[in-house]
Amino acid sequence: DSTWYDGAPAGLSAEDGALHDAVTQAALGGEHQKVLRLAHKWDQAGLPPDAAIGWATVKAAAARGVWEVGAAMLNDLESAGVPLTPHHFECVLRACDRKARWQEALALLGRMQAASLRPTSAALECALRACSKADQQEMVEAVWEVLRAEVANPSAPLRPPMRTYNTLMRALSGGIGPKRVDGARRRGAEQVLLAFDEAVRLRLPLDDTAYKHALRACDLLGEWRRALDLLDESRAAGAPADVLSYGNAMSACARNGRVGNVLQLLDKMRADGLQPNAFCYNSALIACTRASRLPQALSILREMEVEGGVEPTTHSYAALLRACSGAGDWRTAVQLLRRMERLELKAEAVHYGLAINACSRGGEDGKIMSLLREMQGMGLHPDVATFTTALSVCAANNQLPRALSLIERMYSLEVAPDVATYNVLLQACDRAAKHTEMVGLVQSMPKLGVEPNVVNYNTAIRALGRAGDLKRVAEMFSLMRSRGLEPEVSTFRAAINGTCDAAVAGLLELDAPLGRLREMRELGLQPDVAIQHSLLSAAAADPQRHAAVESELGVDAEAVMAAAAEAHDRRGAGRGRGWRGR
């Protein structure tokens, strides 16, 4: 700094010379506010800035974050013919960094480029931080491109320190914060790893901070193999072991259900003298959930409390309840809710929703409505999946009025029903034999903000076919076509299966489902085993008709029956009772 302060220029009055010396002395003493005050006095006196005044001012502006003063001084120096250097711009960029003035920072970089001045690594770091603080991820990437261009400069490539790439990775990490949507978070994490790889190619000395950024990105992306490799590399490079790095590696493994790897990392942590925290144990619980290992998850919970001395969090119980939901273990799910009460851990809507889904999958429909009432009594609002599960109970028990009441409750809470919700309501209408209401519901769904999908039409078509209402079946086919949906094999299956049921019940002749068979063939669609089985079963009472159906299908009846039985067994083994499987 002292090279800028060689004394006052010639030709100044004694008073102005004293003011000049006062500015430089304040600058050398680090009295930034005094520099700014004296520099303003210099400007008010109409004196043009020289190199010393200019440098003192931009330095003070950087320290105080007054980017306007620094930018104005750059203009004054340029007008006075004082040569500007990259360090002048770096100072003003520091001021922009302090105030998150990303637009001004980018403008300064552009101005440097126009003046054929190359930015320093520190200047680029300031621009990166300013853009990141203002949540301008696209601009962070724009500054990254400038950094890449400087590094690749053929005449004099920039050699940034590791600090620059750590700043870059931190700025890119802003794109993986909790407020970001999943797609943006994944992109941010991928960008962090790209920056890490660039630092490796540049042979920069990777430090603990760099590994932490990379491990966090691996966690979000679920890249468990790379996370484990990075953890080993960081230890080999001398980076100190810490809970956060282990936690990120565990979480990456947990996302892939790698229970064994997570437990090994827990053991490694303890061997390194580290105490796993709730985040680490929760990763183990999540891994067990992903791997469908509820008993092991419960064992880890006990270890967490007894051996680890770590109190479970609401996230811990959410992981356990998710495992119960997957296993259909409603008893354990309800016990976990009661345990949360005893521990004074406030259960949230997600906890009740998972418990309700466990009851649905476990066949304990009676508990579903009581849990729904309980959570509403606590002021918790069920989400669409929870409401849909409750609606499925109403449908199964032929409680259409109660189902309609739940739909009204959803709208009052501004919980938007989806196609799955309406499909359950259509099933409730079918069980109550309210086919007129069912048709009206399909017709009005778009006005209610939900466009019916093929499954919704199939549900209505099968129900109407089972009721022997061929006119309305045809209307449903026409309605879906008018809305841009072409019937699929599943649609014809619904129509044929439903009308076959009606034929068996004596409501229709078998000609009705056979007519749909011919129609689908005309469209180039071929009947599957389920359709063949329905037609053959419906004709079973009449050997002559059965033979005719077998001939029209062009199949061997015994082979079809065997294939249908095998498919039924497979579905029975893999079917869950949750609302999405209905």
Would you summarize the structure shown here?
The chain has 31 helices and no strands.
Question: What are the main properties of this structure?
Answer:
31 helices; elongated; 582 residues; mainly alpha; disordered C terminus; single chain
Discrete helix count: 31
Mean of residue pLDDT values: 91
Can you tell me the residue ranges where pLDDT is under 50 for at least 5 consecutive residues? Answer: 574-582
Quaternary state, please? single chain
Query: Can you tell me the overall shape?
Result: elongated
N-end to C-end Cα span:
75 Å
Largest sheet: none
Radius of gyration: 35 Å
What class do helices, strands and sheet pairing give? Answer: mainly alpha
Percent range for β-strand residues: under 5%
| Tally of DSSP β-strands | 0
Helix content: over 70%
List the helices and strands and how they pair.
Elements lengths: L13 H15 L3 H13 L6 H14 L2 H13 L6 H13 L3 H13 L6 H13 L3 H15 L10 H12 L8 H20 L6 H14 L2 H13 L6 H12 L4 H13 L6 H13 L3 H13 L7 H14 L2 H13 L6 H13 L3 H13 L6 H13 L3 H13 L6 H13 L3 H10 L9 H13 L3 H13 L6 H16 L6 H12 L6 H10 L4 H11 L3 H18 L8
Helix pairs in contact: 1-2, 1-3, 2-3, 3-4, 3-5, 4-5, 5-6, 5-7, 6-7, 7-8, 7-9, 9-10, 9-11, 10-11, 11-12, 11-13, 12-13, 13-14, 13-15, 14-15, 15-16, 15-17, 16-17, 17-18, 17-19, 18-19, 19-20, 19-21, 20-21, 21-22, 21-23, 23-24, 23-25, 24-25, 25-26, 25-27, 27-28, 27-29, 29-30, 29-31
